[in-house]
Amino acid sequence: MTDENGTIESHPLHHGEEVESYPPSAEFRAQANVNDPSVYWRAAEDPEAYWAEQAQRLSWTKPFTETLDWSNPPFAKWFQDGELNVAANCLDRHLAAGLGDRVAIHFEGEPGDTRTITYAELTHEVKRAANMLTSLGVEAGDRVAIYMPMIPEAVIAMLAVVRLGAAHSVIFGGFSAESLRARIDDARAELVITADGGYRKGRVSALKPTVDDALALHGGGSTVERVLVVRRGENEVSMQEGRDLWWHEEITAFDGAHEPRGFPAETPLFILYTSGTTGKPKGILHTSGGYLTQASTTHRDVFDLKPESDVYWCTADIGWITGHSYVVYGPLANGATQVIYEGTPETPDWGRWWSIIQKYGVTIFYTAPTAIRACMKVGRQVPEQYDLSSIRVLGSVGEPINPEAWRWYRDVIGAGTAPIVDTWWQTETGAIMISPLPGLTALKPGSAQVPQPGITAAVVNEAGEQVDHGQGGLLVVQRPWPSMVRTIWGDDQRFVDTYWSKFGDQYFAGDGARYDDDGDIWLLGRVDDVMNVSGHRLSTAEIESALVEHHAVAEAAVVGADDETTGQAVVAFVILKSQQKLLTPEGAEVELRQHVTAQIGAIARPRQVFVVGELPKTRSGKIMRRLLKDAAEGKEIGDTTTLADTAVMQTISARMRGEL
Ligand code: WTA
């Protein structure tokens, strides 16, 4: 088989099964940032030297002499005696290099308003904002919560915070007041930066009122002293005297004179909360020098970025790690020109993304499989109406991409020729860990394939031993890497227990994986109680505890059932308290879906809620979610012999078929 991009070769996946692979074209390879395969073994021979070399591409106010301190595992210190200012690395140094007129951000608001912001302008605005934050008392070592729509001020706010040596905690705008408050409390933030509202699906979605609700919860009394509000949605908001300030009013007092200070490389840069296997979200802590080194290196090499000519677009929201590393820090550290779009792909219609690609001549496009599948469903006739010929590299992140979606993405969006980089990584890893390099790797649809240079990831068995080619197991990272999570904020023990107790010195990612016969890595999804819905991580325990907080619910079990579009979907099984039997199953479903939305946010809303009389439990009382997952997926129910009551699954299946 051949295509115009070169030979498609066939490789065995599992024994007997063939997968096609797509080597880079000679033309792409010749121009690629990384096109010498010796990079892999050179980095493997001395990973620290490799990363020290990458770190030299940043500007250090004080050079580091020690690359890695791993004397107290699993607490890594990278480049620790060096000092730098992360914001200055993303801004000022590009001006010093004469690049001030380069566009940093092409902003496209959902209603169609646009702004073009050069590096000089972005730097000026961040300096003013830093001065404003200083006047509000923000200092090195503080935490600032950011709850914003996808507008340039979100990026400006993040960079202004870190310019001062403070850390931000960005909370996705879809989270509820409860979730917001829990994160503010955990980080002990004294300032919240928000907006009145932002545009989503053709209307203004309010944010400031949620901040008000969050701060009023639990009788008020939060750590927050000030709320800074950007005007965007022009929706009605109330401003609390002495606490709330309008950004556009405050900022007028400040000019763009601000000298960045260097801070030690291990200065906390941000906390980002993510779901774990328990109900309480984990505050993933990232620090400065190592994080910026790996975010910028991978952004340059994995996407083959040419900052002088590429127009890059990552569709992630800044509320997620992808937005941190591949909208803010990676691209800006590399002096890239990028698109930031505020809204949803279907507004006003499904042509929106493709019209943006055509309008700005986007060359590198990075999105999630769930979005690709949604676009596939709508049909190729939509993107085919647009000129997408500027695209030269495509990226995928967040969940395994099924080969069918991969091929559609390459054919329809990438003209059948663009390489797709399927990037595996996590909030905890901070930056891309496993991915093809587009100038080197013969791509296999559905596989993230190869650890990045300088990264040692492996598939191991339960004993922590690497498995053979053709075998499956658990994914681990074997050596510390620069952008690794430093701890769980305020909870070192949980950090150790979660990631390092299973295999000791190897980082346990929580993902299943397998090697194919060539030794390429295929990710198989989570092996713990974390679900992946539309590329977003959700915890079964967190949703279960939200459900049992409802006055009518006695017990709840939540599973992630396979879903054609969203990868997985939340399906809940609940037992109602006896006095609540009058609530109809339909009534309970509506009410409980709404309840979860209010407690956590719409991303966690169950697709279905089934009222059941009993839950399948082992004799020791552990809920067997595996069986519920089978039922939710309409599959044959697996082995029920360890259940205390083997009849319970028959009753549940009958209930789900509507027979009871
Ligand atoms: C999953 C997102 C397969 C995985 C950057 C991981 C993937 C979790 C991929 C992290 C991929 C992410 N192929 N699975 N290319 N990328 N995942 O923290 O299960 O939101 O553990 O970070 O998403 O999700 P998180």
From TrEMBL:
Protein name (record): Acetyl-coenzyme A synthetase
Family stated for the protein in its record: Belongs to the ATP-dependent AMP-binding enzyme family.
Cofactors, names only: Mg(2+)
Domain of life: Bacteria
A matching Pfam family: ACAS_N
UniProt cross-references to InterPro entries, sorted A to Z: Ac_CoA_lig (IPR011904), ACAS_N (IPR032387), AMP-bd_C (IPR025110), AMP-bd_C_sf (IPR045851), AMP-binding_CS (IPR020845), AMP-dep_synth/lig_dom (IPR000873), ANL_N_sf (IPR042099)
Stretches assigned to the Acetyl-coenzyme A synthetase N-terminal domain: 39-90
Record-listed ATP binding positions: 398-400, 422-427, 511, 526, 537
UniProt KW Transmembrane helix keyword: no
UniProt keyword terms in alphabetical order: Acetylation, ATP-binding, Ligase, Magnesium, Metal-binding, Nucleotide-binding
